Amino acid sequence: MTSSVFRADLLASRVAFVTGGSSGINKGIARRFIEHGAKVVIVARDPTRLEAARSELDALAPGHVLAISADVRDGAAMEAAATNGRQAFGPYDIVIAGAAGNFLGPAEKLSSNAFAAVIDIDLKGTFHTFKSCHPHLAPAARLIAISAPQAQLPMALQAHVCAAKAGIEALVRTLAVEWGGVTGPRVNALSPGLVAGTYGAEIFLKMVGESALVGAQPIPRLVSLDEVADAVLFLAGPSGDYITGHTLAIDGGIGLPTVAGNAITAAAQRALAASGR
Q: Whole-model pTM?
């Protein structure tokens, strides 16, 4: 990652809790937090990947990262993880609900279990993350859910993801109202487009190519991990103190009423047909 536009001590003495923190966007966010002085609890299911991420992040600032293996679908496991992290580092100033899953699937062929898999990880996982951390929050903590353009932009082959992400953004607005107050948490979402260098983006790039994915966007390129991480810093730092119940889209304008969504849908359908699935 490159240098940030924010001052180096922006999050000094702050504590963050990040789910899905062993890879991709969420590991990049955890890295950015550590680079700006925070201590970070990263949570993920796979102990091997989690330990690799912990070792990588710990090299930036020894003693500033704690790795806890837990499944966001398991409310009790998340409560235990939140409690353990609080005991190690103190109250949470920032909570990132970032664990997610995705795959392409025609709605008529999605099994109940397949549909539920994404709902359970994305939507229930976000609820479990925020609920488990709620007793351990510092005043005016920042709760940030990672959403996606599918929350607002219907896409064929993504019924499960669209439903999950739309639910996340509704949950964010609801908790912003329910948990509001001068010292209550600020609850927001971040909705990035396809992020360069991540597993999810690579799958789509191999299937249809970058031009088919983002060529119709007002800003026709992928978003970088640096840009996503800095957008989270904007919400997590002092600049986010009067922002709650909103989704910050960092998506190149794909959510605007353009032909971009139709172009992506058509490209995905062609690729799926060619694969014989």
A: 0.92
